[in-house]
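Q: Hi! First time doing this. I have a protein sequence and I read that you can turn it into a structure. Is that right? Here it is:
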Amino acid sequence: MFVILLALMVLGDKAHGQAVLPAFVLGLVMSRDYRRHQEEQRRMRVVAFAFLTPFFFLRGGLNVSLGAVFADLGVLGLLAAAKVVPKFTLIYPLARRHAGSNAFTTLLTSTGLTFGTISALYGLNAHIIDRTQFSLLVTVVVLSAIVPTAIAQRWFSPPLPAEQPHHLVPPEPSELLIGEAS
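A: Yes, that's right. Below is the predicted 3D structure, encoded as structure tokens:
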């Protein structure tokens, strides 16, 4: 699987696409098989999240111009609103209706972080968009992940239990020493 994954990544790069995209396509193709072989699925996830994904986001992040972002804060605000407002006005009510208490989780997972970054990087590499446009788009994509997460932390966090049962509370270090001595 790793050889196939690397070969697809090389082909994606040679085709002037994003090398990380074949990892997602391979995951989709293999999803039925991964359901039966959970350990292989876990191994591929470890490789994708620990090795491939950081390089992808570092490559994208290094192309962001903070000067361009700060110079166009008005455009950034409009684009961010165009991406975040529909999540709260359209996706959240539908998710709440069909997913109940998991509705905000559904909203959080609909960020488009990876594919938004992939498409922006493709546009930059293909000279469809310039670095300023790329910077604004990637910043909006990142904000569309951060804003719902911040809102979830503030207003949708599950209540903390009042007190853990005694058998779940870890012993104090001094209790361990006393228990070992007796």
